[in-house]
Amino acid sequence: MNLFIDNKSGAPIYEQLYTQIKNQILSGELQPEEAMPSIRGLARDLRISVITTKRAYDELEAAGFHNYPIVLHGASSVDQRCVAMCNEYGGNIAGAKGIPAEMLRKASSMAVCKINMDTDLRLAMTAAVRKVFAEKPAEFDPRKYLGPARDNMEKLYKHKIINVLGSDNKLAE
Fold first, then answer.
1. Strand, coil or helix: what is 162?
2. What global pTM score does this model have?
3. The dihedral sign for the CA sequence 166, 146, 148, 93
4. Interior CA angle at 96 toward 75 and 86, to 5°?
5. Distance CA 90, CA 152 (A)
6. CA-CA distance, 62 to 45, in Å (whole number)?
7. Mind listing the pLDDT tens digit for each residue in 158-173?
């Protein structure tokens, strides 16, 4: 997607973005199956405020352009149970916070098609591995500590799919 900001234009920046994206959609240059840049990523690339980018995307949504998926990067909710488990078993993760689950649920019901939650998954894995090593310090077989890590990640995946994203049984639709 090619976008540019004209600082000499009298039009607000969000309006310039909205118009350019809308025109690319209407001309067929941007197809519905193509993911839009993340709000944060586009703001970074254009060196503008995230709020400005979000406003342009909100305007597109309000105008009925909601079949153009947006990727939400950095959207971990930072599961506090995993942080507590990491800290209980020797970690030192202070003040870790993320995006509230309610906001992620709302985003998943809108044009956002992908929500990256890598931090949550790394925390779930690290917490389980730390627990095994703390309870069984002589353990060296990766199957003995990666199995519980995988199980903890699977538990977190299921929780996110059902309770955060509201995507349970959506594959059939």
1. helix
2. 0.59
3. negative
4. 110
5. 18
6. 24
7. 888 888 887 777 665 5
